[in-house]
Each structure stands twice: as structure tokens, then as C-alpha cells.
Amino acid sequence: LQIMMQYIHDNYSGQITLDDIAGTVLISKSSVLNIFRTYLHTSPINYVVEYRLKRASKLLVDTENSVCTIAQETGFENIGYFCRRFKKLYGVTPIYYRKHCRSAEHNSM
Fold it and tell me: Which stretches of the chain drop beneath a pLDDT of 50?
């Protein structure tokens, strides 16, 4: 599991398939699915998406890059999909997140 997670962390900005993840540890795709579901309670692809969103949330606060650029840098090919998944995970849009997280960070200093 650690090797597969490390592969995802190292390659999240590019395309990652279930075959790619399985290939890192030379096991079947169904074994990968079972391992992720057992230990992380999610699918490998959902883990990839959530890791990308976590990286994107950091970039939103730490950089001035556009939402579109951040989506592309974190492996999302479709800005609409990125925004929908971001809002589903964080409860707010990427722009709202950027504005309010920066404000909270600035006010806490």
C-alpha cells in the first residue's frame, strides 16, 4: 500500500490508471482495489482525485496561479470536473476557498 501511495504522490499531476498503480507492485487490479478498500476505505482512483484536490487546495492558498492552471498542474484535464469535485470535498468553490483561507491565514498572524 505504501509503495502504491508513493507512486500516486510522485505522479499525481499526470495520468494515472489502475493498471499503472497495480504495475508498481506487480499485483492484479482487483488486488489493488481490495487493498485500497480494506485499508483506506476508498478506491484507488478516488484516492488519486482526493490527493490531487489536497494538492490543489495548497496551491490555491500558496500561489497566485489561476484556478484553471492549478487544475491542470494537479492532473485535472477538465476544469468543470475539478470545480465540482473540489466543492464536493471542501463544500466551497476553489475561488471561495482561496479567498477565505488566505483571509483566515492573514488574520491569524
Answer: 106-109
The pTM of the full predicted model, rounded to 2 decimals, is 0.91
Q: Which amino acid is at 54?
A: K
Check which CATH number belongs to the domain holding 42 and give it: 1.10.10.60
**Cα separations in angstroms, 54 against 23, 29, 82, 95, 107:** 24, 25, 12, 15, 22
Q: What is the DSSP string of the chain?
A: -HHHHHHHHHHTTS---HHHHHHHHT--HHHHHHHHHHHHSS-HHHHHHHHHHHHHHHHHHH----HHHHHHHTT-S-HHHHHHHHHHHHSS-HHHHHHHHHHHHHHT-
Domain that holds residue 13: 2-107
